[in-house]
Amino acid sequence: MKKHAGFFAVIVLFVSSSSFAMEIKEASNLIIEEVEGHHMVTVPVPYYGASAPVRYLLVPKGEAAVQSIPDVVAVEVPLERVVIGTTSAVACLDVLGSLNSLIGLAGGKYVYTDSLRELNLPEVASDGGMSRSLDRERLISLSPGGFITYLYGEEERRDVDFLAGCGIPVLFMAEYLEESPLGRAEWIKFIGLLVGKGEEAEAFFDKVASRYRELEALGALEQDRPVIMSGAPFGGTWYVPKGYSWPSILFRAAGGISMWDDLKGTGTAPMDLEAVLDRAVSADLWVNCGTWRSLDDGRSSGVPVEAISPFKAGRVYNNDNRINEHGGNDYYQLGVIRPDLILSDLLSIIHPLALPDHELVFYRKLQ
């Protein structure tokens, strides 16, 4: 196993058992085990291109040591002072009633929660994650018990190792690497364990998963399967969801089918405008159309939208119904841990009679 500075052997004396068994049911990139009565959290792929997993041993404050566990990051829990660099973790803290533990932000402009923004918490970076704008000295001055964030590549590890050397564990929130919507949502269990709300997090997820399955069953009853096109061009390229990506999974669960359902794999694939237009003739609905706030935005985008069937029919929906004046979009915050709400929206859009009383949460119809 590759060793990194800051990933050190942990010696722990277990004088009491304060954990409970926690089962991971949907996430494929999160493992939670018990080690002598304590939680060991493993993230097999903490970021794109990672050469080794990371492991965290969650040690209740005040406990001492005997057993050596190599290449493990020790984290004293519950975290009472935490800095966050990802809005999905903000959502977790919010629903668990633990926002009072938050003492700093990276990328605060992306946070949807106005009440949190009004607190004017210290900013350690203008962008989320381990960005180049990270102010390491300011982060250290806050004396957090941990920094919950994400990485996009190995080149950002230098800050992780530096902070670890200063006694600040960096906790990878890698839910974005999950393709299953419920797999992403289940990462609330990791956050729950970190802030002493593990049982609450488990109960929250179970309710979300149960409702998601109920909606999925409704979608499965639908015989008609409308074709869904999604996205908008960015820099001249249209990134479309592959057949096993999480948007395509949601479209199928809602009784539809992605326009690119035949593309094997997860994530997205780059397409030119001509390829998209060739397929768009079969589309029934258009969703997730980038920064467009109106149909006129589409008309002025350079895309020949009037030639696209769902645009002509006025069946265009964007996932920006809950966005604040600073650009914080709750679809990428609360939506990560509430895929049942996203699925409710999509089911009511694709099959209006399936949920006749549903009011859209994250989506809205463009006018």
UniProtKB/TrEMBL annotation:
Q: Per the UniProt entry, what are the Gene Ontology biological process annotations, in alphabetical order?
A: cellular response to iron ion
A Pfam family annotated for this chain is Peripla_BP_2
Q: Does the keyword Signal apply?
A: yes
> InterPro entries annotated for this entry?
ABC_Transporter_SBP, ABC_transptr_periplasmic_BD
Q: Which residues form the signal peptide?
A: 1-21
Q: Which UniProt keywords apply?
A: Signal
Outline the extent of the Fe/B12 periplasmic-binding domain. Answer: 81-354
Record's protein name: Iron complex transport system substrate-binding protein
